[in-house]
Amino acid sequence: MMRARNGRSLATRVNSSFQLRHARCLRATLSRCKSQRSAAVKRELKTNQRTTRRDVALSDADDLRAWLTAQAVQHGLRWLLAHADNGIIWGEVREGQLKLASEALGLQELRLARATLQQARLFGPNGELRLWQGPKGLQAHLCHDEPDESHTTPSYFDETYLLWGTHRERSNDGFSLLLEGAQGIRHTPPLAFNPNEDTQRAKLLVRHYVKADATGVVRVVASRLVELQPPG
To answer: What confidence tens digit (pLDDT) does each residue in 94-109 have?
Structure first.
């Protein structure tokens, strides 16, 4: 189960099958936090933004890497986290180019390919572009946030999750191959650092969008990745 720093599970709060499928994929990337669970967890619901969502066209003729790069530049997105049949694929957009961990670290088995891609998230503070395999091939959906001080309805809260990885095997060009003990978990985030099990784990900032139902109960209706964060 994927857990936040306060010990609560993300997957148990997401109430749609679409979100659950992607939450399960993220379990391969996110670590359990060792902190104790608080008896009463308080969340700061934020109001100062407006969120738009829409499907984005992606045809079979599009070159996947070029298409992702163009979308990242257009929408101000920085990091790529993809899950494929052959493992976890990390990437980062730098100066208008999508850099991939597979190339930086010589891991050709982790190359980005349509045939093996299960789902991907291209994300940043401005939003997230999500790809997944649909009945007719890859589909894409964009969630975009814009600051709006006039928006006063509580709409989201942020939560930090820890990444797997307590040992670094090697690094190159800003990517590190991280390993997690006897569990055999390995992935290659675009961060250059030496992890430590207790204090030096990398993190992912996750945004949960909320909505009140007819009875006034506020529930999480969607979640997205916001930012990859170094230890500290």
So the answer is: 999 999 999 999 998 8
Q: Tell me, letter by letter, the H, E, C secondary structure of 6-56.
A: CCCECHHHCCCHHHHHHHHHHCCCEECCCCCCCCCCCCCCECCEEEEEEEE
Alpha helices, DSSP H, located in 83-154 = 101-104
Amino acid at 59: S
Q: Which CA distances in Å does 204 have to 26, 48, 183, 189, 226?
A: 11, 22, 20, 11, 7
**DSSP state at residue 183:** G
**Segments forming the whole domain that contains residue 91:** 45-229
- Residue 38 located in a structural domain: no
The answer to whether residue 13 is domain-embedded is: no
Q: Under a CB-based contact definition with an 8 Å cutoff, are residues 74 and 124 in contact?
A: no
Taking the model in full, what pTM does it have? 0.81
